[in-house]
Write a structure and sequence with these properties.
Blueprint: H1 3-29, H2 31-42, H3 50-79, H4 85-92, H5 97-110, H6 118-127, H7 132-144, H8 147-157, H9 159-182, H10 191-195, H11 209-244, H12 251-254, H13 261-269, H14 276-288, H15 293-305, H16 308-314, H17 320-344
Amino acid sequence: MNLGNTSKADNSRQYFLLLLLPLWFLLYHYLQPLTNLLVDDLLRMTKGKHLTEAVRFFIFEVPKVLLLLILIIFCVGIIRTWFSPERTRKALEGKSLFTGNVMASMLGIVTPFCSCSAIPLFLGFIESGIPLGVTFSFLIAAPMINEVAVILLFGLFGWKTALIYVVTGLVIAITAGWVIGWLHLEKWVEDWVYKMKAGEQPEEEQLTFSVRVKRGFEAVREIVGKVWIYVMIGIAVGAGVHGYVPQDFMASFMGKSVWYSVPLSVLIGIPLYSNAAGIIPIVSALIEKGAALGTSLAFMMSVIGLSLPEMIILRKVLKMPLIFTFIGVVGTGIMIVGFLFNLIF
């Protein structure tokens, strides 16, 4: 490849980024007045009507969430170029149980992970001699505290709720992994897993900043390309709830005063499957209509962190007692978080 052409392409990419950033901030800043202009003046819809407020919610939230997704996923995509799965394994090798749980949970936030990669990551960690409990801290944190969830929570609820979610998710991942490690449940891992030997690992790539920027754009294209439809569906459902469900309706079975609301929400959430992009806009509308914050967080965490597809995939490497232990420990942690935040807020 011609180095001169490559250099020009890298420079063009960086100049393009410099042009896009001011446009992003301008559009995000004026999103609310543009939405009101479209709904009230161009569409001439009557203020206060159920349909009008549902449409206003949808038109405002969809671009807001997508703009946040694009910016933050781009930044996280660049950060992730320093955190490959191999580098993550190396960082966790030889760490003591609790220290390893903390590090694994922190690394889980910035390391690429989805349900389909659960087995390769699990095998890679076990082959490298990383303790089972540390491995589970990573497997819990990576899907639960992902950038999509944090972005949506920040956009729909504000930074305090997003921070609460990150901190409580880390506590659950660290504690659950530590408990699983303390119980010494290695006997419930499928026998063939420990017979595998770690092969030669590929050398780490040495990337220039321009290449990292390119990876950031690729992350935006890949992740937003996958989740935009879930964002649209989730916000459409949320818009319906926002416009048509009576105020405080959800308080009757998801409010603070209903003692069984937290365990019920976790039990309902575990068998469901959705990603953060689909479930968080719905949760936002439920809270607006009277559902308690703790109950809603518990429901959301159980859907994202204990998804049925992930359990089915992990069954290939784990025996059923360990899967049930995993669900029980994480589910209990989620319920404690739900009760705690219902008590505080």
